[in-house]
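Z., the sequence and structure:
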Amino acid sequence: MSRSSKKVVPEAMDSLERFKYEVASEVGVNLKNGYNGNISARDAGRIGGNMVKKMIQQAENQMTK
């Protein structure tokens, strides 16, 4: 199975990028602008996992309104 890197909503790219840096800051990972290939897989997973967790919480909140 191949993965596509095509974004479902390309207009959301800037917001997602800002969100990534916000979450990284919250979990104590120092990201810099541009390439961040030097961070550990564990830190990258913490960032991504927390992003998903927050997006699910936001979706659940929208459903209850």
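The CA atoms of residues 51 and 62 lie 17 Å apart. The chain is about 60% helix and 0% strand.

Let me know what you think.
H.
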